[in-house]
Design a protein that fits this description.
elongated; alpha/beta; five-stranded parallel beta sheet; 5 strands
């Protein structure tokens, strides 16, 4: 049995597998690839906790039929539909049958990541307020730049110092910081520092004492 969250990609389009592999790589999840619903049912260790990102229209069994088959077998694999051929009726059917969400291609990376995190939080071992695993999943859902900004903010650097260190605009720092803090459930740099300590993610070792006077300006950036 897998001890980390498993994300199954079930789609008959190899380009989708490549794209999702790129988006999900390095986030601490085990990624499994299946090119048909039948292969998934036959080959996967279905009891491993995790979710499935499923296309609606595939050769052979469709995604909606797969969802019904999982329910019939009482297999608790939360389903996220990702399709380029969705209709309102399909979406309603999927959601009424318990899908986590119904997304259309192309989908924004952050939107997909949030859906996966929400699906994984259905498992007690990956959820719960203050849970280290839930915090780790939330941190891994950040973009690389958001992680950089959070680490520096947690080290005590002010937004303008982070801007200079990373060589990016102050407004960009403010938006990355606001988005990252929202995803992590943090309101202050001190909260982010505690979260990073909880999951064993180091703050920036070079931040030094220059930021003893850190400010949370920009926390409420309006961009989402």
């Amino acid at each position: 049995m897998s001890t980390v969250p498993v994300v199954r990609i079930i789609d008959d389009d190899s380009h989708i597998h490549d794209a999702l592999d790129f988006v999900l790589e390095g986030r601490g999840w085990e990624i499994r690839h299946y090119w048909s619903a039948e292969a998934f049912l036959a080959e996967d260790f279905l009891s491993d906790p995790g979710c499935a990102v499923v296309d609606v229209r595939m050769d052979g069994m469709s995604g909606l039929v797969l969802q019904r088959e999982l329910r019939r077998r009482r297999i608790a694999v939360p389903v996220i539909f990702l399709t380029g051929h969705g209709t309102i009726d399909m979406a309603v059917d999927a959601m009424e049958s318990g899908a986590v969400t119904f997304l259309t291609k192309p989908v924004h990376n952050d939107k997909l990541i949030r859906a996966i995190v929400r699906a994984l939080e259905m498992f007690p071992q990956f959820s719960g307020a203050g849970s280290a695993e839930a915090a780790r999943i939330a941190f891994l859902s950040l973009s690389d730049r958001e992680r950089e900004v959070v680490r520096l903010a947690a080290s005590g650097l002010r937004n303008k110092d982070i801007s200079l260190k990373l060589g990016i605009a102050l407004r960009t720092v403010e938006c990355h910081r606001a988005n990252a803090f929202r995803k992590l459930g943090c309101r202050r740099a001190a909260d982010a520092k505690i979260l990073l300590q909880t999951i064993g993610a180091e703050t920036d070792p070079d931040a030094g004492d220059a930021a003893a006077d850190s400010s949370d300006a920009g926390l409420f950036c309006s961009r989402t």
